[in-house]
Amino acid sequence: MDEDECKSLNLEANGLVSDIDEAIENKDDYTAAEYIELKTLKKEAEAMEAFIGGVGGLASYFISKDDFYLANKRVGANVSYANKDNYCVDVIKVVIGDFVSYLADNNTLKTYTVSYKWNASGSYNSGNGTMGLPEKSVRHIYYNRDTPSQKSITVHSITCVEI
């Protein structure tokens, strides 16, 4: 999950979506089954693009819950709850090799502005943030790209304001 590699993979996924879109436009060239397969592949490629951007902390990606789990079927990341049912949103921890990412998880049908604080276990590192989080989606809070040895944080003081 090197940043340059994430950006490259994200662009590749975006290119794949464009290529599939082009193929879909020529639907007369395909059987009904092939056309359905193209639509399925497009959905997976879009999910993978969002997953790479969201988990990798690129820009301000948010991922629908459905796309997050669809993409993770391909990626096979270790996904667990770091904090569940204590705040208005949950916190998911995603581990891919030595890379760790924490995501806010909105299980509701409401769109929120979410504010939070985090502290690294056994260190003085801490941070905070505020972000929009649409219904039934996840969005990046923290990753350990800059400090690979820091595998665990605690996210706390989470507040939500419905938009």
Model description:
The mean pLDDT is 94. A hairpin with a 6-residue loop joins strand 2 and strand 3 (90-96). The chain has one domain (3-162). With 163 residues, it is of the alpha+beta class. It has a five-stranded antiparallel sheet with strand order 1-7-4-3-2. It starts with a helix and ends with a strand. 36% of the residues lie in helices and 36% in strands.
Reconstruct the topology from this structure:
Blueprint: H1 3-25, H2 32-55, E1 62-64, H3 65-75, E2 78-83, E3 90-96, E4 99-106, E5 112-120, E6 126-133, E7 137-143, E8 153-162
Antiparallel strand pairs: 1-7, 2-3, 3-4, 4-7, 5-6, 5-8
Helix pairs in contact: 1-2, 2-3
Trace the largest sheet across and list its strands. 1-7-4-3-2
**Helical content band:** 25-40%
Residue-averaged pLDDT, rounded? 94
Count of the separate structural domains = 1
Q: Briefly note the structural class of the backbone.
A: alpha+beta
Compute the CA-based radius of gyration.
17 Å
Silhouette? globular
Low-confidence stretches: none
Q: Could you tell me the strand content as a percent range?
A: 35-45%
Number of helices: 3
Report the end-to-end length measured between terminal Cα atoms: 32 Å
* Main sheet attributes: strand count, strand direction, barrel closure: 5 strands, antiparallel
| Order of H and E elements | HHEHEEEEEEE
Instruction: Please tally the β strands and state the result.
Output: 8
Summarize the structure.
This protein is an alpha+beta fold and 163 residues long.
